[in-house]
Write a structure and sequence with these properties.
Helix content is 41%, strand content 13%. It contains six helices and five strands; from the N terminus they run ααααββββαβα. The strands form two sheets. The protein has a three-stranded mixed beta sheet, with no helix packed on it. Strands 1-2 form a two-stranded antiparallel ribbon. About 4% of the residues have low confidence. Bound molecules: zinc ion (ZN). The site of zinc ion (ZN) has 7 residues, from α6.
Length: 175
């Protein structure tokens, strides 16, 4: 994993370095939210779940209380700069998780009928390496030009196999 080199001395921690590298202020709230999501990289959270998790984990020593608005705004910023991955679940609720740093492009499929957002890693296994290589080449080219804090999203939109089958089985239903 190529982590950004901290420029502010040996005391800089990895979360502060990430925030700085993405042009974000190193506030206690930002550290708390990003730190929590990085510590639970395999779980995606809704706004409400994240707020509940942070509240129950609340270490009074941190002195951080996050209200809803602050949390929403912070999550938006972290997502914009590519530190968080946002996905819409079956109930059309947004879920967030830490962006895996080793992954340049996570191919996923957004069904326009059932609004399910599913990873395509299995379905695209044969070409996954090509996609990752192309993504890495593109990011390196941009980096060489001076672009920073990049992330890439590879989304395919259409009708998923389940919905396509359901539609052809029951042609009377609205698509
Ligand atoms: Zn579908």
């Amino acid at each position: 994993m190529a982590s950004p080199t901290p420029k502010s001395g040996p005391a800089a921690d990895p979360i502060d370095a990430l925030l700085s590298a993405h042009g974000l202020r190193r506030t206690a709230a930002a550290r708390l939210v990003l730190g929590w999501l990085l510590a639970h990289p395999d779980t995606s959270y809704t706004h409400a779940q994240l707020q509940a998790a942070l509240a129950s984990d609340g270490d009074p020593a941190h002195g951080v209380t996050l209200d809803r608005v602050t949390l929403y705004r912070l999550i938006d910023r972290l997502t914009q700069v590519g530190l968080l991955l946002c996905r819409v679940d079956v109930n059309r609720v947004r879920r967030y998780q830490a962006m895996p740093s080793s992954v340049h492009a996570i191919p996923h499929f957004e069904c326009q009928t059932c609004h399910r957002d599913s990873p395509l890693l299995g379905a695209l296994q044969a070409s996954a390496n090509d996609i990752d290589r192309a993504a890495q080449t593109a990011l390196e080219a941009l980096k060489a030009l001076g672009y920073q804090g990049m992330s890439m999203d590879f989304a395919v939109r259409g009708v998923c196999a389940d919905c396509a089958t359901a539609t052809s089985d029951a042609p009377g239903l609205p698509a």
